[in-house]
Write a structure and sequence with these properties.
Elements lengths: L3 E4 L9 H16 L3 E4 L13 H12 L22 H13 L3 E4 L3 H13 L15 H10 L3 E4 L6 E6 L3 E6 L7 E3 L7 H11 L5 E4 L6 H11 L6 E4 L2 E2 L15 H6 L4 H9 L14 H7 L10 E2 L2 H14 L2 H8 L9 H12 L7 H6 L21 H15 L7 H15 L3 H13 L7 H8 L1 H18 L2
The chain binds one RNA strand through helix 4, strand 6, strand 7, helix 6 and strand 11.
Length: 480
Amino acid sequence: MTVRVRFAPSPTGSLHIGSVRTTLYNYFFARQNAGKLILRVEDTDQDRLVPGAIDSIYDGLAWLGVKWDEGPREGGPHAPYIQSERLPLYRRHAQELVDGGAAYFCFCSKERLAAMRAQQALRKEITRYDGFCRRIDPKEAAERARTEPHVARLKVPDDGVVALDDLVYGHIEWPLSTIEDQVILKSDGFPTYHLAVVVDDHVMDITHVLRGEDWLPSTPKHLLIWRAFGWEIPPHAHVPNVLGADGKKLAKRHGATKVEEFKDQGYLPEAMINYLALVGWSPGTEEEIFAIDELTERWRMDQVQRAGGKWDRARLDWFDGMWIRRLAEDDLLGRLRDLLPAEWDRDVIRRALPLLRERMRTLADARDQVEFLFAEPPPYEATLLVPKKKEPREALDLLVQSTVVLGHVQPFGHAAIRAAIEGIAAAEGWSLKDASHPIRVAVTGRTVGLPLFESLELLGRERTMARIERAQDLFEKGVD
RNA sequence: GGCCCGUUCGUCUAGUGGCCUAGGACAUCGCCCUCUCAAGGCGAAGACCACCGGUUCGAAUCCGGUACGGGCUACCA
């Protein structure tokens, strides 16, 4: 039997990094078993649909490089893969349960249900459906169902237990007395999630249900539905959630949660995958840099953590830096393409790359770092040119000296430039560090940046000199 | 309230009865390297393994309880 797993997002928003992590685990599992990964869109709640959500799922996973075998756009033997397009299937199955006596029609109004729950809460009882419509004769119920609005509810036995041997969490039991007669078909004719997942997982031959831990509490409901149909229940594996820093489910208020936000911020998909895979799973060794194919090879279900993991941006940043430094030069350059103005000379950027890449946390950092090579430095105060413990006059002096010397350096390469500046520094009794400072500010407008001598080489003699001379002019007003 | 799950450095984690006076990584701090900033190297600090009790010659590891945290408790998924 070939392994078939699925990821089943609801199109209620943009692709969330928490669901990406779960999707990743499904992907690893499918791939390492030479199985199939299925994308199924669970849009049974028509009120919560968000336009563009499916695009976001496709875009996000495409960016990450996660591929699947069957889905809404790629089709497959069980199409359609969007639940709202499979309505007759669910209705038929709900009817089958009603006919078999495992489910029944319920005509209770929302008002009655609300009042009932309020009463129960008041008496400090468990709030659950009281079985009012269970007592209606099936024939009468069928008759009323023709004209009256109704839902279908699963008839849950009053006592006994349901149990699951979860591949991650182990054996779990639920007393049936705490589970209410679950709605399986809503009054708008749509199935609830509970009916739809079970029917689809069965019909689509899903061999392993691998999903987020937050589904654990509804699992007994699903188990009961599987049981009611008399279908064989596939193994289930729940994986812990990705949490916010406060330990609660990761949500918007914790900051960026959509993959597209990370893409836009210049993160590498490799880093995202690497980081995310390691929240909730560990190879059991001390290695931690893994490409998606290595993860696919190494990941094991029995190494999946049970406790939820907190989102840690700083750690993601570290992974991102590692991956930026691992990328081949051409590759890095390619990814920078859209982040840098087209008119910036790619050859210059390529030459700056070795200096640049160690200073990037994300791809978005590149622009700032190399901007001085293509544009004049932003305005700055003359005082910025003066190193600590030096006088403005001394700084001006040094700049003057440097234009003299840099005018003759041959060739205008970093080694010769360095030697020249070292020469001035020695003559003036300055440290190289201090001597570099005014020149760096003159040329870049900043006190920190790429290595200076290489930067000057990239800039070229003419522009270097022009900028240093302009810096000298700044002193005209200020000094004596 | 009820049901279920969880609990090893701030964070991600190693650890499946003796190798643990608990290892690694991120973050933090210091030193080195060094033209700045990074990167890199070295080092420090940081966890009485939630707590209490039991089993055992021996427990982070097994058992029970408690506490705390989380999830669910909808005609949401």
